[in-house]
Amino acid sequence: MLQALLWGGLAGSALFIGALIGLYFDIPKKIIAYVMAFGSGVLIGAAAFEMLYVAAKEEGLVPTTIGFLAGAALFTIINSLLAKKGASQRKRSSKNPEGHSGLAIFVGTIIDSLPEAVVIGISMIDMSVSLVLVIAIFISNLPEGLSSTIGLKQDQYSKMKILTLWIVVFILTALSSLGGYVWLDSASGHWIASINTFAAGGIIAMVSSTMMPEAYSDGGRIVGLITSVGLILSLILTFI
């Protein structure tokens, strides 16, 4: 139980770290793009190797396909609604365009992060954390915390208020991971597989619509290779 709390907190801490970077440092956009590309590869691998393959093997292709497409569709709908409120740039490291909403970006970040933390908790049910998921979520959260902080600064939020908000998110991610472990400990394999495939769909939709376009825009063609390195690393970690 304590481990679920700690691993979820570790993945969520990247948001707070990204916020600190956004407040106090000026990181070259290319470096952030490379990190984002690497994280995209690891996230794609985590969804494919850790979530989809296992679910398809245990529950079959039909429920896996339905759950995956449902998760992707729901993320796309929510993402579209958030974009209308100014949160379309929440995973971007550059300044957001005029008309953005720092608070909407922040809310979008929470919507992205909490389900991921729940999945980490679920992976702890068999007493072994999914390192692929933790690493992938940690890496993807860094630029999200950074870009959200830039938006909040543009909305004239004080440094203390911004840090307080991210501390709250850090606590929520840790508790979400714990909740995934506790609430679903006695859940059937079917339910766990359904949640994993649903989350995998959301992850792939998020990566393809937010992280990968930004990485290519700021990092250039080399990000294809960096993404591939992240993907093969996720496969290696799956076998460790």
From TrEMBL:
Keyword annotations from UniProtKB, A to Z: Cell membrane, Membrane, Transmembrane, Transmembrane helix, Zinc
Topology with respect to the bilayer: Multi-pass membrane protein
Keyword hit for DNA repair: no
Residues of the signal peptide: none
Transmembrane residue ranges: 6-25, 32-55, 61-82, 162-184, 190-210, 222-239
GO CC aspect terms: plasma membrane
Major localization class: membrane
Cell compartment(s), UniProt: Cell membrane
Gene Ontology terms for molecular function: zinc ion transmembrane transporter activity
Family from the record: Belongs to the ZIP transporter (TC 2.A.5) family.
Protein name, as recorded: ZIP family metal transporter
Organism for this UniProt entry: Salinibacillus xinjiangensis
Lineage, uppermost ranks: Bacteria, Bacillati, Bacillota, Bacilli, Bacillales
